[in-house]
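Note to self: keep these together.
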Amino acid sequence: MPHGTGFRFRVYAALLFIVIVCGTIGIMLAEGLHPFDAFYFVVVTVATVGFGDVVPHTIPGKILTLIVIVTGVVCFVAVAANIVESYIARRERIERLRKINMLVGVFFSEIGTILLRTFSAADRDCDRICNVLIVSGTWTDQDFEKAGAALAQYTPALRSQNLDLPALNRFLSEHKPLMLALLENPYLIEHDTFTELMLALFHATEELRVRETLVDLPETDYAHLSGDMNRVYGLLIREWLVYMRHLKTHYPYLFSLAMRTNPFDAKASPVVR
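Structure:
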C-alpha cells in the first residue's frame, strides 16, 4: 500500500477491532448473551447486514448497539474503502511502471546502448567491470544484486581525449529531441534515477554543443568534459543493469536481444548462433 493509504488502513482497522471487541464484551454483559452470539451480533451490525435474529432487549444493550452502529459502520466502510483505494493505487502504479519502462526501453534502443558501447571503449579501466556485466539467461536476482554491488564500488575513468567528441556531439544533437521528450514526460518524474541520468546527459550535450571546436582543446577543458562524461557513464551503467533485470523478469524475448547486443561483451552479436 502507499504510505498514506497504509497508515490510514492500520488506524481504521485498529479502531474497527476495538469497536468489535468492546462491543462484543458490552453486549455480553448487557444482554447476557453467549460470547459467540454477542460477537455475531456485533459483526452483522457493523457490516450493516442486520439479520434480526439477535436483537438487544435492554436499554443499555440498545444504547451500546447505537454506538456500535455509528462507530463500527464508519470504521468498516473506511477499511473497505481503503482496501479498494489500495488495490486501485497498486494497479495504477503497475501501469505507470510499465509505461516508464517502455520509455526507458526506447532510450536504450535509440541512445543508451550506443553510448555505453562508446564510453566503455574509452574507459581505460573497463576490464575491471566488463566481466561483471556479461549478463546471461541463467542470471538470478542474486547475480544482479552482486553486479549492482560491484558497480557501487566502481568509479568510471574514461578520458574525453579518447572519445571522438565531434562524432559524439553529432549523435547527441541528432537525438536531442528524443531526450527532451523523455525529460518532459510526466511519467519519468517518479523515476528519480532515470531523470538524474537524463539531466546529466542533457548537460553533457549542451557542453559539447556550445564549443566552437572539439579538437585540440586545453587539458583543463578535456578534464572538465571527462567529468561530465563520467557522470553520464556511471549513471548509464547502473540504469542499464536495472533495465536488464526488468527485461529478464517481464520480457524474455526483449531480454534475449539485449543480451545479444550487450555493450560490455566484445563477443556479443545480434545474430543467433
